[in-house]
Amino acid sequence: MTTLLPATAHQLLARTARAQRDSRAPGLVAGVVRDGALVWSAARGDVAEPHTDVQHRIGSITKTVTAVAVLRLRDEGLLGLDDPLERHLPGTPLGDRTVGQLLSHTAGATSESPGQWWERTPGGTLADLGLVDAHVVLGAGRRFHYSNLGYGLLGELVAAVRGRSWDDVVRDEVLLPLGMRRTTPRPSGTAATGWGVHPWADVLHPEPEHHHGAMAPAGQLWATLEDLARFAAFLLGDTGDVLSAATLAEMATPAGYDSDSEAGGGYGLGLQVLRADGRVLLGHGGSMPGFLAGVFVDRAAGDGAVTMRNATSGGDGGLVGDLLRLLRTHEPALGGTWAPSPAAVDLALLGPWYWGPAPYVLRLQGDGLLHLDGLGRPGRASRFRPEPDGTWRGLDGYFAGESMTVTPDLLVLATFVFTRTPYDPAQPVPGGTEGGGWR
Prior knowledge:
The protein is of the alpha+beta class.
C-alpha cells in the first residue's frame, strides 16, 4: 500500500488545519487517494474517532450516484439518453426533455422544487410537488441551468424503470458493489451533527435533517470519509462491475458550461469538470443544511481528494484543489511502467496522414484506441474505439461520434479524406486534383 512521506503529510495537515480554522468549521475531515486507496487523512475540530468512519451529509455528490444508476439502465438497453422523459415517467411538464438533458442540467427545469425550501423540510411524493408548466424555465438544451428538481425526476425515473425505490436501487447497484457500506439515506451509526455557524459570533445553531422524498436523489445521502475515498477510486477508473470505463469517460465529457459558478467549468452527466492549476478535475461538490463536502480526482495524475465538514456555509472551496496540488508537488506519483503490448491493428495503418496539405499522425495507444492528432502543429485531435463492423468511432474532440474507415492507403473520417501524401492524385480527394500536381 502507498504511504506518504512525513513531510508531505505535514503539508497536507497544515493546509487542512488552516481550512478548518479560517472557515470556522466545527469539524473537518480530509483525505487523499492514490493507487485506489485512502493514503492520508486528518481530522480537525470536534470530530469523533476513527474520523474516517464518521458520517456526514454529502449533498449533491448524491447526484453523481443517481447519474451512475441512470447510466446503468442505459447500458442495459432499458432507456436511451435521447429518450424523452415522458416515455419512462409520464405526467410531468418536462416530459419532452431528454434523459441526457436532465443529467447534464440542460433540460431547462427550475432550479428548486416548488413549495418550501426542500433541503430543510420533509419530502413527499412526486405528486405532492404539484409540478406545472411554470416549472419549465428555459428551452430544451438552451443553456446550463443547475436543477435539483431535474435530479429528483431522474430518481423517479430510476424507480419507475426498476420497479423499486431509488433508495434500494442505488444501495444495491452502486453503493454496495463499490464497498460503500457506510453510505445511507439517513444517518446511521456515528454521524456528525450539522451546524449553522453565526456570521458575526462563534456560536452554533443546529440544522434539521429529514428524508426528502422525491427530492432525495438530488442530495440525500450520508457517507464517511472512507466511503467517499472509495468513490474517488471509482472516478479514477476502478469501476468494477458498476460501470464500464467507456461509460465513465462519457460521464466526464462536458455537455454544458457552468458560467455562473465560482469555479466555472463544464458539467458532464452527473459530474463537474473543473480546471485548477492547469489540471482537469472530475467530481462533485455537495452542500446541505449543516454540511459541505467535495470529492474530486485528477485522472491524469491518478490522485483524488475528499473533504467533509459540518457547517452550512463558509467552506474553503480551494481545499480539495490545494490538497491535490500539494500531493502532486511534494510527492508526484510514479505512474505505471511502460511495457510492449501486441498491436491490435495492422501497423501499416499508423504513422503520417495528410488532410490536404496538413500533416496528421495516427497512433495506436496501449489501450487499443487509435489517436489522430496534428503532426508538428495543432490539429483536430480525437481518439477512436473499434466497432464490430471494422470501422472506428470517435470518442472525443472534434470527431466525437463520427465514423472512421482506414486502410493502408486511405483514411475517411466524416467527409474528410486523408491520404498518405498531400493531395495524392491517385486517391479520391474531394474536389479532385490538377493534373499538373505540385509546382
